[in-house]
Amino acid sequence: MQYRLAVLPGDGIGREVTSAALTVLKKIESLFSFSTEVEEADIGGAAIDRFGHPLPQRTVEICQASDAVLLGAVGGPKWDNLPGDLRPEAGLLGLRKTLQVFANLRPIRVFPELMDASPLKREVVEGSHFIIVRELTGGLYFGEPKERRQTANGLEVVDTLHYTEDEIERIVRVAFDLATKRRGHLTSVDKANVLESSRVWREVVQRVALDYPQVQVHHQLVDSAAMMMVQKPTFFDVVVTENLFGDILSDEAAVITGSLGMLPSASLSSRGPGLYEPVHGSAPDIAGQNRANPLATLLSLSMLLEHSFSQHEAASVLEKSVLSVISQGYRTADLAGRHHQALSTTEMTERVLAALEDQVGCQTMKSAQ
Ligand SMILES: NC(=O)C1=CN([C@@H]2O[C@H](COP(=O)(O)OP(=O)(O)OC[C@H]3O[C@@H](n4cnc5c(N)ncnc54)[C@H](O)[C@@H]3O)[C@@H](O)[C@H]2O)C=CC1
Ligand SMILES: CC(C)CC(=O)C(=O)O
Ligand SMILES: [Mg+2]
Hints:
Blueprint: E1 2-10, H1 13-32, E2 35-40, H2 45-51, H3 57-64, E3 68-73, H4 88-99, E4 103-109, H5 122-125, E5 129-135, E6 139-151, E7 154-162, H6 165-181, E8 185-190, H7 196-209, E9 216-221, H8 222-231, E10 238-241, H9 243-257, E11 266-268, E12 274-276, H10 295-307, H11 312-327, E13 331-332, H12 333-336, E14 342-343, H13 345-368
Parallel strand pairs: 1-2, 1-3, 3-12, 5-10, 8-9, 8-10, 13-14
Antiparallel strand pairs: 4-5, 4-11, 6-7, 11-12
The structure holds 1,4-dihydronicotinamide adenine dinucleotide (NAI), 2-OXO-4-methylpentanoic acid and magnesium ion.
Subcellular location: Cytoplasm
Binding site for substrate: 96, 106, 134, 223
Keywords: Amino-acid biosynthesis, Branched-chain amino acid biosynthesis, Cytoplasm, Leucine biosynthesis, Magnesium, Manganese, Metal-binding, NAD, Oxidoreductase
């Protein structure tokens, strides 16, 4: 089997973590007998520096011609003063919109060995395992108008939260479908006490719920949901929400897992390539130091193998290998604390490569018995 993969390293630690993922992918290909034609392309600040635009047409074409896209992260202080539509982040938003990857899945899982890495109490985080389903191509990040205006009374500014009913319904259905395969519990997060868009969101959830009588639905306002997420994270199973709310809540949820460096994501469309990226950004504070935790990107690669390549066994073995390095006590600096030695990005990647060999070796032995 041969797949086509577009790799967009982007900026900052994006380059380091995608490089780790490519090393791991090569190993997986040899262990599971498939091959991938990888094409790298620029996005974000790197693309601005080379081509004067955060999302060059060539990058879009390479992504569209691929089975999947793996992205590192974009942004950094060097480009922070550019106009909004020419910033690195605009490149990423443009790519998500062009690929129509409206369903952003962000699984939040507590690894037992990392329970004490969270600043939250062990008894609060223990057993947390939920997934945030974030609407990714609409809402406040995309609505028009979105502009600054000079008026007689000074500067005024507008961002717009816009949704069609269809856009809400398609993401809500993704969330209901997921809930049927999990604990059957859906929390829809909105701000229906203030926003008209949230009131329509709630109506759509209530209407779609009629098709899923086996799913228990809970509506939660975003402010109290933010509190509940760190107070009682085990309450949540599937969380569905608007673009900006999902962005904020998922970084908050990272606290439960111990580090933003552990959170993967998959962004899926109805057809066309999926986009896989860690939840974190380009981390300028540690960029270029070989200190970044590559595990969020490796878990995103596992989601890619599952959803876009249908290499289910490889996906599962990669996930188990990540679990295994953590349970063997290997940690990058974000998780090392006082009790562990901090491994570099490349050292952690080598541990995952070794764990992959071990996992596949164990499976071969089991099937030979
Ligand atoms: N998807 C993307 O490309 C995203 C890009 N950004 C961009 O990234 C830049 C920095 O944004 P921040 O708010 O600082 O968020 P960030 O996610 O880059 O970093 C937040 C904190 O988490 C740490 N961190 C993040 N990933 C880590 C990893 N893998 N291993 C170890 N530590 C890690 C960083 O060192 C930093 O202290 C900005 O330009 C922002 O726009 C932010 C979020 C997402
Ligand atoms: C940089 C932004 C475009 C997005 C972001 O923070 C995210 O998707 O998590
Ligand atoms: Mg974010």
